[in-house]
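cron nightly-structures :: item 1 of 1
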Amino acid sequence: MDQSHIRNFCIIAHIDHGKSTLADRLLEATNTIGEREMSDQFLDQMDLERERGITIKAHPIRMAYQAVDGAEYQLNLLDTPGHVEFSYEVSRSVAACEGAVLVVDASQGIQAQTLANVYLALEHDLAMIPVINKIDLPSAEPERVAQEMIAAFGFEESEILFISAKEGKGIDELLERVVRSVPPPAGAPGAPLRALIFDSKYDSYKGVIASVRVVDGRIEGGKRLRLLAANRALDPLEIGVFKPEFVPVDSLATGEVGYIASGLKSVENSRVGDTVTSDETPAREPLPGYKDLKPMVFAGLFPSEGQNYLALRDALDKLKLNDAGLVYEMENSAALGFGFRCGFLGMLHMEIVQVRLEREYDLELLATAPSVAYQVLTISGDVIDVDNPTKLPSPQQIDEIREPWLDVSIIVPSRFIGAVMDLVANRRGEFKRMEYLDSRAADSLEGGQEPSRDPRVLLAYHIPLAEVLIDFYDLLKSRTQGYASMDYQVMEFRRGDLVKVDILVNEKPVDALSLIIYRKNAYRQGRALVERLKQLIPRQLFEVPIQAAIGNKVIARETIRALRKNVIAKCYGGDVTRKMKLLKRQAEGKKRLKKVGNVEIPQEAFMALLKLGDS
């Protein structure tokens, strides 16, 4: 294919604005998928994506399109996720494209993630095609949403396309706009080969399969390749393209998107962001890769059966290849044994990773409660990163503890401003600014006029990450009847009045239940936790105290009463000393058992930490 007839573009939007449905219509319009093979959300191949109705992974696919002028074009599409926690997938897709289709729901308008994705596309200087989707809905307001896009992003009214992906309206016009507006890929066909790995996965038969975008030169089958960053030579088993299944081809030219089946069995040898070049005539300079992702949420993952530790390690290695946001290291817990301390981009990311490990690799896992990463300044002047409460130094060595703060943007109808402000104020949030997205609504409010509809408002806050970690998003949705949308980015670390709360079960600290929390909330949350643990931990043959403590000071206690066996049931008569002797022996046995007995802590006990915000 002539390089001038190649178009690489992605679809970006807020969650549930119709990206996957639009991708389905594009596949049908270009006859890439036949009617018999077609299904809803075709590019969402994972069961999790279909169950939850969200896109988790970016999915590339090649389409052949004949334009109105009769010319043949090769369209490489990347369908991207919309949830804020998977924005790293969007960033990798954007870096591999020259254009982006910006989709906005005609009934919901601009959302928080819409703004974030637009800024990301502008950073990479992409040609943007504004599209208003779902114009067929009874609640659609395409004219109002068009004015929002013009005011927020500076589009011309003639640039905006009005479509219905569900009914197929406007799809042909969109394809023509992609051909006309998205520039062909730059690159030198005669230069040494340079191809960027933007995704990868592991296959039992073909080894590591790397998804690549050829920037310079050409990949030809049968020729030895080299990974520049890993400094590893490889003989590719196969090269091909996504249609969407793997289709082998003889070569990949400059500007094309495809895959390389490397045959490598060691997953650490092929990392996302590495540059593929020719082994005979290697390129001197690698391509600029991607920024290292910094996980914000940490939790321990442990196999329910100790002998599955190695299987969990192999599964994490393979999943890491397909998920650049996952970070892990070995961890040993006194309560749970050997496992891994894993870093995630958010709570949804953590849940998705755990479910994928259990389903795709047939593992049964125990997960500890999530926590954020803190910075600890010691009295000696050293700064220590602490992602696990058990790693926190003793109070005598700590000068201050710093916690991560977020820059949060919330878009909500104006009638819910009070509810949002109350929620954020209770979570230690700091108000920064408020602005109306619709300039006409803002002008009418300033002039003392009653607006014809409920205008939408952008609220900006600074808030600690720990306060939004567990249930903040759910509460935000419930208080705004589902209308609010939120986007965030990590801002800085600030000093906080934080303490470590230890949980002691049978007078023994359980490291997996320790947590670092705001001092003013310590008593309330410690009390709530021990009360939940009392309900969740099964009764033993001896009395089990459950305590929450800050250092040596116990701030809350509950006691699980012992199971009592009626040892005098067989004594029908005789001297009372017979009964006293049996009761005394039972008491001595319970006292001895309390010293040597172990208390089994169920998985629900660790998940009790997730529900502290409800109490």
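cron nightly-structures :: done
The longest strand covers residues 398-413.
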